[in-house]
């Protein structure tokens, strides 16, 4: 057992932190916000390095690339610090970071690991990367070979699979599928497009619903129905059992109610109580099957209808309307007496009212038909998707995870041989952000543990915070944290792997005064149990307070009137509604202005911190992106720079709208709307009047004539400046055929970017716009059908998946940032502002099926640890069925539970100050104002903590208005209108439209002739401007990919073979390379040509001294290596063709420098290659500079780095210090 004395400066939870470093214990750590989770993980990893024989025996898994990069960076940074410390400087506290790093580095030296040189031994990755690592060990499962490329935006693949599936309607070879499609189309009023969209959405979430029965080729539908109905039956059985216990406290109550119902039927109200009255006896159970259980539910529902009002309360009034005439006093008194006795039983009224909310114990035949049809459709769609993946040569993350689970567990859920081999090499497993795990990821981790041959000497270290579990939309299950804490990781054979729970309490992030404020607030927010099992854990401040006595938490309020409902059209009603609308809008505008003023008050400190090289970050965190849009607009108007992190849609940015119009117009001259957009864009800037001159409808021929034709005919009608701008556009478009002839295989993005550049598009955008456009060009390149997709919805659909990039000129370390609360998780800011706390929570859209999977307290008879709730979508135009309503309500309850945690995450991002903005609503009745309790919002969630302060502020606000003699019904401003006149709301004056246009004398430095010469002389080289593009297009990209793969294969072959043997062995890869080339859409002849050229390049490299030197074994050598790092405050993901340590110059011995090599397939025609190399270097050097910056962040700024561009087609190598 480890022991240590606590030093005076130790955090309040130091004992727990020391316990967490015990390498013999498996531990689950609850690490609240600001508790130094990454620091603890780093210490644990360093401590474990002193225990293992090989560093690859330690595996750390997290859920984001940024978190994995940060962990790797912290560990390597501490090891590098240790390497630079003198022996005399080494500390003696064995649990300090310095001591742990010193010991880990000593272990590395003792065992010859060379951790600082061979960093790939540190197995730190995302769970997706780890799954892929396992999946490629069994390529037969993937169907796409051992490359297993991941498509991170696979919506198009889902859509392709959905269409292939739905096209089987009427297929006589697949009658069950055809009938299922027909049933679903009829159910949804023949909404083919809707069904396709529902299917696309379901395929994206298939890891959540794809249970074993879904994939069965010969399903037993009766058994499946029984399994799916079990959760409904369990809910009904449990509720009836509780209700029966309560009713038994009044002996004979049910029989008495049955007799009274029969009496009511005989006296005129048969339609109310017939179902209850017709029972021979009241069903008391036991209930042998779902039919008996459903009959019992119906009986208790009838009982509730007799005894309760529609509001779920015991009846107070018994009369003829209920079937009890005045003259039958005895029966009326009997029912009153029965209700009185039942009302005296605590909890009975609520339990009886709850019967109405229960689902049916079994599906109706109609519902079951739709559930069965849905799963039939989903099974076939999942099969089509696998075929689509194989055809595309890529899969999504879901598929990788499913393959990995197949690799780990056989059909009987026992570890496979591959799993045993993989797990045997893992002595210690660390899992970060465990509160964000889904059930499938939890099963994956459990399968790894289950595969350990023996568990002695192996540990699991799990870190997370259930209070920060906010990703239910990604299927994160907050309840799993508490489950593992209580019983460990459970296996299907009822075994479990226990962990010791620890809880950290120190908060190193937040000012002590703010820590106390948030503690007080969230003790109240989390005070009432919500069914999630998550309780609030108080934090203890572990940092000193900042100077000054300023307020750390501030609530900013604007009170707004309740929206009046109704459709009355009398002048007074219209006036009242318009008045309220103006008040609410004015309050919103006023609050945005207050928020901007708050930001401006901190800008001096932002500037001071920037000058001093420190951090000062102001974050505006919205529940939804819509809450941040008006703030972004106001910041732009006030000219305050800010970073919008995944806030605005890429498709809505002005530069993207212009570029999209250009792309459509280039490939479809008949697209009049696109052409008008091109002429309106700032490179041309025609006014609306000028556009009307060209394309107005007063001429009968104009509506159908192409815009280019009209433009040429009417150029002389335009003013000089506009005519010159339009001529420049026409000339650029006229150059398009020549450009295509000179670059026959150029990609769509390359062609559009060329024309955009020629007409002056690059002169019309700022740095942020340029970054967005670079993303747009790549998106055009990735369109599956190239330019053909520009004539349909494919481009618009692809743009939906992208957000505009943050302003690259604004630092993430100093300044203002706007992002959603979900995006802010894991970050910290000096000032946090949360706007629109009163905004209503959004509602989720319907899926093909409503489903929900939840844990159960004890495994059922099948050994299941969860139950799967499924209900069908309702018939088009009808209300939801009971089953769907019940499942949706359970999901909704889970979402409401999460709002507490979302609020907690937002509040705990703050280091110094937290500001919350809200607009509580009041109602006015007879001149009396009453504050309404908020519903379905973050303000409703925070109400237990904020209600007293808000109510006090409301009272002060009313008194202030009353004292001033103002009408308290007008919150911010009052419109002058007499009591007898109608309120007239004047529209805001129209703002003049300012046309942005390039100057009249604009002339681009790159003439058409220059561009043509460049295109014809160099294949693979773009312009020397910001938009470096691959001119060779699809052909050249396919060639480049093939060459990269072959050089990677060659590097691996030559580790065990001489060069002659490696060249011969390389020939075995030709079929795979050819198939890979064909998969991108090239013809067989093109694939043959590319494969031959790729082999020529690889053979050149194997015989060239520089090529042999690059591909040979070196210290820390890696091919196609990927990693992430922070550069200028931004996460950069980089992939390097070849990385290794070698001498300071090529071909020289030693390992003093780290070499970064990029392969380039560019070549020259009729030019001296040595004259072209400087141009190539200028083109590609910026990208290598990014690689170098990431490496220096990982290894230190003193790292000697060399960059090199290797051209296997020309057998040339260009290198330089970087």
Automatic annotation (TrEMBL):
Residues 561-826 form the UvrD-like helicase C-terminal domain. ATP binds at residues 31-38. One of its GO terms (molecular function) is 3'-5' DNA helicase activity. It is an enzyme of class 5 (isomerase). Keywords: ATP-binding, Helicase, Hydrolase, Isomerase, Nucleotide-binding. It catalyses: ATP + H2O = ADP + phosphate + H(+); Couples ATP hydrolysis with the unwinding of duplex DNA by translocating in the 3'-5' direction. Its EC number is 5.6.2.4. GO terms for cellular component: cytosol; DNA helicase complex. PROSITE patterns: UVRD_HELICASE_ATP_BIND (PS51198), UVRD_HELICASE_CTER (PS51217). Residues 10-511 form the UvrD-like helicase ATP-binding domain. GO terms for biological process: recombinational repair. This is DNA 3'-5' helicase. It comes from Telmatobacter sp. DSM 110680.
């Amino acid at each position: 057992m480890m022991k240590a004395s606590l030093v005076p400066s130790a955090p309040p939870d130091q004992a727990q932190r020391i316990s967490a470093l015990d390498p013999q214990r498996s531990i689950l750590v609850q690490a609240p916000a600001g508790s130094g989770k990454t620091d603890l993980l780093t210490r644990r990893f360093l401590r474990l390095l002193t225990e293992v024989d090989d560093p690859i025996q330690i595996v750390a898994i997290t859920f984001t690339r940024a978190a994995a990069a940060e962990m790797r960076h912290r560990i390597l940074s501490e090891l590098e610090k240790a390497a630079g410390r003198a022996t005399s400087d080494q500390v003696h506290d064995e649990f300090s970071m310095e001591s742990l790093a010193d010991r880990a580095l000593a272990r590395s030296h003792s065992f010859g690991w060379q951790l600082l040189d061979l960093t790939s031994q540190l197995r730190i990755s995302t769970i997706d990367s780890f799954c892929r690592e396992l999946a490629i060990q069994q390529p037969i499962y993937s169907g796409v070979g051992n490359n297993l490329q991941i498509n991170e935006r696979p919506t198009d693949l889902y859509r392709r699979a959905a269409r292939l599936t739905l096209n089987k309607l009427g297929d006589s070879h697949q009658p069950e599928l055809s009938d299922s499609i027909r049933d679903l189309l009829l159910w949804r009023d023949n909404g083919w497009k809707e069904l396709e969209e529902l299917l696309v959405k379901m395929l994206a979430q298939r890891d959540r619903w794809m249970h074993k029965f879904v994939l069965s080729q010969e399903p037993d539908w009766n058994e499946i129905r029984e399994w799916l109905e079990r959760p409904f039956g369990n809910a009904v059985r449990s509720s009836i059992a509780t209700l029966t216990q309560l009713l038994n406290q009044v002996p004979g109550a049910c029989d008495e109610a049955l007799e009274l119902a029969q009496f009511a039927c005989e006296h005129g109200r048969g339609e109310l109580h017939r179902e209850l009255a017709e029972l021979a006896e009241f069903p008391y159970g036991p209930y042998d099957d779902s039919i008996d259980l459903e009959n019992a539910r119906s009986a208790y529902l009838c009982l509730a209808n007799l005894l309760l009002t529609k509001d779920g309360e015991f009846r107070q009034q018994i009369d003829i309307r209920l079937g009890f005439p005045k003259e039958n006093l005895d029966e009326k008194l009997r029912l009153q007496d029965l209700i009185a006795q039942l009302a005296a039983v605590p909890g009975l009224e609520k339990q009886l009212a709850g019967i109405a909310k229960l689902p049916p114990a079994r599906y109706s035949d109609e519902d079951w038909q739709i559930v069965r049809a849905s799963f039939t459709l989903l099974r076939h769609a999942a099969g089509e998707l696998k075929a689509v993946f194989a055809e595309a040569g890529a899969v999504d993350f879901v598929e990788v995870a499913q393959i990995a689970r197949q690799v780990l567990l056989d059909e009987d859920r026992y570890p496979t041989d591959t799993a045993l081999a993989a797990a045997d090499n893992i002595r210690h497993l660390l899992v970060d952000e465990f509160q964000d795990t889904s059930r499938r990821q939890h099963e994956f981790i459990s399968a790894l543990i289950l595969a350990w041959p023996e568990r002695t000497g192996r540990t699991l270290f799990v870190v997370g915070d259930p209070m920060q579990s906010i990703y239910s939309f990604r299927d994160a299950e907050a309840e799993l944290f508490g489950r593992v804490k209580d019983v460990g990781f459970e296996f299907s054979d009822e075994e479990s792997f226990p962990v010791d729970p620890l809880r950290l309490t120190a908060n190193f992030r937040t000012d002590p005064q703010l820590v106390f404020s948030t503690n007080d607030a969230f003790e109240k927010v989390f005070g009432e149990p919500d069914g999630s099992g998550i309780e609030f854990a108080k934090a203890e401040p572990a940092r000193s307070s900042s100077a000054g006595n300023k307020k750390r938490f501030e609530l900013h309020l604007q009170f707004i009137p309740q929206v009046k409902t109704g459709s009355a059209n009398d002048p007074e009603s219209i006036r009242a509604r318009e008045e309220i609308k103006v008040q609410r809008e004015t309050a919103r505008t006023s609050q945005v202005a207050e928020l901007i003023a708050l930001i401006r008050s901190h800008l001096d400190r932002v500037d001071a911190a920037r000058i001093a090289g420190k951090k000062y970050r102001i974050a505006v965190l919205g529940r939804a992106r819509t809450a941040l849009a008006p703030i972004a607009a106001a910041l732009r108007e006030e000219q305050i720079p800010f970073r919008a992190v995944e806030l605005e849609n890429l498709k809505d940015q002005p530069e993207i709208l212009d570029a999209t119009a250009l792309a459509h117009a280039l490939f479809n001259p008949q697209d009049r709307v696109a052409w008008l957009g091109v002429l309106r864009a700032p490179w041309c800037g025609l006014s609306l009047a000028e556009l009307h001159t060209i394309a107005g409808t007063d001429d009968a021929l104009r509506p159908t004539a192409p815009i280019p034709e009209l433009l040429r005919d009417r150029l002389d009608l335009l003013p000089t400046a506009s005519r010159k701008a339009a001529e420049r556009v026409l000339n650029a478009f006229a150059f398009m055929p020549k450009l295509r002839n000179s670059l026959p295989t150029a990609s769509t993005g390359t062609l559009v970017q060329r024309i955009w550049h020629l007409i002056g598009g690059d002169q019309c955008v700022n740095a942020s716009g340029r970054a967005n456009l670079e993303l747009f060009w790549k998106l055009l390149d990735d369109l599956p059908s190239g330019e053909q997709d520009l004539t349909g919805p494919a481009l618009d659909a692809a743009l939906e998946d992208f957000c505009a990039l943050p302003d690259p000129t604004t630092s993430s370390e100093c300044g203002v940032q706007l992002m959603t609360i979900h995006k802010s998780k894991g970050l910290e800011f000096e000032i946090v502002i949360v706007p629109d706390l009163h905004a209503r929570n959004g509602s989720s859209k319907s899926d093909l099926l409503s489903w929900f999977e939840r844990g159960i307290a004890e495994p059922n008879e099948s050994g299941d640890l969860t139950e799967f709730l499924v209900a069908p979508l309702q018939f088009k135009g009808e209300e939801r069925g009971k089953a769907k309503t019940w499942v949706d309500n359970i999901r909704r309850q889970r979402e409401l539970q999460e709002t507490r945690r979302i609020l907690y995450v937002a509040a705990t991002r703050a280091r110094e100050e937290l500001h919350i903005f809200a607009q509580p609503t009041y109602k006015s009745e007879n001149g009396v104002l009453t504050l309404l309790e908020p519903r379905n919002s973050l303000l409703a969630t925070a109400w237990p903590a904020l209600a007293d302060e808000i109510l006090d502020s409301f009272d002060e606000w009313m008194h202030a208005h009353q004292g001033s003699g103002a009408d308290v019904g007008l919150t911010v401003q009052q419109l002058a209108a007499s009591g007898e006149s109608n309120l007239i709301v004047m529209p805001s004056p129209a703002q003049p439209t300012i046309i942005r246009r390039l100057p009249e004398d604009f002339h681009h430095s790159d003439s058409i002739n220059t561009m043509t010469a460049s295109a014809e002389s160099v294949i693979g080289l773009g312009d020397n401007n910001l938009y470096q593009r691959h001119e060779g297009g699809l052909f050249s990209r396919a060639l480049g990919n093939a060459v990269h793969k072959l050089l990677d294969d060659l590097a691996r072959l030559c580790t065990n073979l001489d060069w002659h043997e490696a060249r011969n062995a390389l020939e075995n890869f030709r079929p795979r390379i050819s198939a890979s080339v064909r998969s991108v859409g090239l013809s067989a002849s093109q694939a043959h040509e590319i494969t031959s050229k790729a082999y020529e390049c690889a053979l050149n490299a194997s015989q060239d001294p520089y090529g042999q030197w690059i591909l040979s074994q070196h210290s820390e050598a890696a091919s196609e290596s990927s990693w992430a790092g922070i550069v200028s405050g931004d996460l950069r993901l980089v992939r390097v063709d070849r990385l290794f340590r070698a001498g300071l110059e090529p071909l020289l011995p030693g390992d003093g420098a780290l070499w970064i090599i990029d392969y380039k397939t560019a070549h020259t025609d009729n030019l001296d290659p040595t004259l072209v190399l400087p141009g190539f270097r200028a083109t590609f050097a910026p990208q290598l500079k990014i690689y170098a910056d990431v490496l220096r962040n990982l290894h230190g700024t003193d790292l000697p780095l060399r960059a090199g561009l290797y051209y296997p087609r020309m057998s040339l190598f260009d290198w330089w210090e970087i």
